[in-house]
């Protein structure tokens, strides 16, 4: 009897036809929150000009946005588990739209505090979307192709991140200091609120097919004893949380003062032109994601992370010297090496967590709060010298470098007492 032939390679499909509409909507969320995040860095500069706040105080914009991720991370996960992915997306879009609409009265009153409250509510929506979208994508097809779906969605996120400074430069910074009543801010956020609300209304009518979700934890090695370990007994996970905190701290500070740096040290550069260069640097970050994905076929992820951290450590030193074009190019280059840091720290931290992987994921994502705290510290130094403020991220990259060369290692832990 002739044996049945089996295919040499079983390649799972990207998704199934029944999920295409839902996949399109969920992927669009990555672009929407890319725009929302990077617009904050444009507002940082604009509020300095129009509301006459200091660089240190303008960093409270980042505190409002990134702080929302820390506050909303776990509640968004609980809501998703209780009410499902689709309602989780609708909650995120609702908060996003509400925050955008609240920017209008806050801008009319020229209230810096009111604007930050509106941005906080908006960012709670972004945090909810980010918490829901990743597992949602995972369930839209074969689990073996989930990495491809998520990589594709992050490429779309890169388009949104690039678009934010371009949109902000055109609508907001182009008007310069003549925008004394923040009219451009009101116009832009009215449009954003209407777009986001429209996406939410349409998505509420989409019938989401049953998802392919595997709730069972799969042992990652024959010696995996995670069932007997508590989450925080995994030292590599704890250090991943620390590394992510410092990583996003450096990213938030760098983005917050990019426009300030360009205007201060590049002769003749306007706010709008600096925002366009910021957008270009985010294009380098998107390129770095694809390049890093390719290189990880040949280079261990932790080693690639170490190279990226050391490179940014050196670039920050060059930036702090304010050597004209050389330092400005170095500033743009930071985003090329930023690209792989968040996902690589994330994946290394989740190794061998077993049944704790879901909760561990939430804690690592909460490291985004570093982006709320660090820009304020950099702003205090930037009040004296924007260039010297870039000495501070060197500390952050040193922590990431140590994680990449040593602290990432999975170590055995004693089983929890029964």
From TrEMBL:
Q: What is its main location?
A: membrane
Q: Which InterPro entries match?
A: Lfuc_symporter_FucP, MFS, MFS_trans_sf, MFS_TsgA-like
What are the coiled-coil residue ranges? none
Q: What keywords sit in the KW lines?
A: Cell membrane, Membrane, Transmembrane, Transmembrane helix
Q: Where does the protein end up?
A: Cell inner membrane
Q: Keyword Protease: yes or no?
A: no
| GO-annotated molecular function | fucose:proton symporter activity
Residues passing through the membrane, by range: 20-39, 59-78, 90-111, 117-137, 149-173, 188-206, 237-262, 274-292, 304-320, 326-346, 358-378, 390-408
| Gene3D superfamilies given in the database record | MFS general substrate transporter like domains
Look up and give the membrane topology term. Multi-pass membrane protein
One Pfam family, short name: MFS_1
Concerning PANTHER family, the annotation shows: L-FUCOSE-PROTON SYMPORTER, PROTEIN TSGA
Q: What is this protein called in UniProt? A: L-fucose:H+ symporter permease
Gene that this sequence comes from = fucP
